[in-house]
Amino acid sequence: MATMEVVHRSVKTNGIEMHIAEQGSGPLVLFLHGFPELWFSWRHQMAFMARHGYRAVAPDLRGYGDTEAPPLPYTSYTVFHIVGDIVGLLDTLGEAQAFVVGHDWGALIAWHLCLLRPDKVKALVNLGVPFWPRSPLRKPVESMARAYGDGFYINQFQEPGRAEKAFACYDALTIMKKFLLINKQDLLIAPPGQEVIDSLEIPSSLPPWITEEELQYFASKFQKSGFTGPLNYYRAMDLNWELMAPWQGAKISVPTKFIVGNEDIGFQSFGTKYYVIGPTFKEYVPNLEVMIIEGHHFIQQEKAKQVNDEILSFFGNRSAL
User: Fold this and answer.
1) Would 106 disulfide with which of 32, 78, 265, 279, CB 3.0-4.6 Å?
2) Domains of the chain in sequence order
3) How far is residue 103's CA from residue 35's CA, in Å, rounded to a whole number?
């Protein structure tokens, strides 16, 4: 079968202009990227699923790439806004439901989509970030400040302008390399008095799963859009905690496969590994399969073939349902 071209267009959804990339035709698979990424993070999955009879759609999420970035404050970047963008996108695409794949922040958005509008999701494959039940006791930023201090990246990202000022010391390509080529030794906790972006090192050579040209594509978009939109997702975390109070204790009912790299810094830290392999994760996501594979955080790019096969197998078994 000949390779189908990626088609780019802009659509209106939830009051913003959203850039989407499309490839193939058939049942819809919606891909949601993380930080600091774009639709382009899913290039391998989109081509693969299109060849196997699916309609692959990957947006630049609110504030990213060629999608509109509502101006400050961060209150325009809650999970309600982002999930609303996705629901509106499905309506624009003429689809009542979709298979959904999320990674990093895209996984968090996908979890919330399944909580708020499970009727919109046929099945879910999430990468890297598990579903964490809402703590009734303490806001997340306060909890992370107590545990990891001011040097933790999420805490440094809270103050408007702080991370932007630190990022401005580097060109966009260097920032992409610092984040996308991160390894498990980089815990995203800066030494006292230092910004986290300064503490991240760039490897002497690129890994085989990404090229200089691909990194340059990411960089060109962030050079244009900046980082305030993406950083606002982190700045809305405590507000999300407040807004999600009515869903305290709610569970994910959608059939789900969770895939994580064994070298992912998030999996290796913060107690995530024991949570994922223990009983609590499945208690909150009862219809769950967990797969731990060899790899790091950006697993859909690093281990594209294995991730592709898992997505196709999981969704293929549910296409006729």
Assistant:
1) 32
2) 7-316 (3.40.50.1820)
3) 9
